[in-house]
Amino acid sequence: MNAFTIKDLENLSGIKAHTIRIWEQRYNFLKPQRTTTNIRYYTGDELKTVLNIALLNKYGFKVSHIDKMQPQEIKERILSLSDVHAIQERYVNDLMQAMVDMDMDVFESTLSDYIATKGLERTVIQIIFPFLEKIGILWVTGHIIPAQEHLVTNIIRQKIIVAIDKTVSPLSSDKTVLLFLPEAEHHELGLLFMNYILKSRGVKTIYLGSNVPLKDIMFTTELKSPDIIYTHLTATAANFNFEKFLQNIHQQFPTIKTVVSGFITQQYKKKVPPGIEFKTSLSDVLQFFSSI
Fold it and tell me: Which terminus of the chain is more exposed, N or C, with fewer CB under 10 A?
């Protein structure tokens, strides 16, 4: 059983901890238990309850009315929401609930349903990335079991790979992009997605994948002469020296434009070496690759 703090519920649902405490006092749907040190904790079922109530409340239902609903009615009300953003949030919540339950059949069918109607690109932007942000919150707080994270990310990875294999673009570009993750970086989903984006736009790609030594990149660039090198850093190792990494890239590939994205680029305050560009958001990356 997963145990979540009130801060987890706040981060995942968007409902302030103060409001959650008021809900506990006024309504019946939350009955937190307490640790031996008197700290509240909530079960996976209570997390799912808060996610559902927060969604209905955001789109016009009073909490006092929701409290009187039976579980089936809550489910029907959620399914009846027609606002585009509400539908997206419902899918994100469904993914979260399936992950908590480790119900991979539901997780995969939820993804497949959205991909079938919206395509992979919109699925990744509208529901997978928001879902992964929530996963990141739980990972940092230690309230996600590693097996849960591995199961869901592997399913997402498989979906992206299948889409890459099926991609046939009507567009054509004379540019070639080499994609890689440095040594000790294994979080590949962002890089895989950009490989899909590039191929869907007719750009040639050389996909080296994760945990790539610098010497392998050097060998490949000498052999294939890519126009652009791209990497996306999600969760680097504790001993990863980003400044040294940038300097090595600059020294080894001074004539090849290198694009770096990921959260680490938002925090870096030192001067970026010539020939290297930071893209601090997904929209920046997409705009850049649309222009090549």
Answer: N
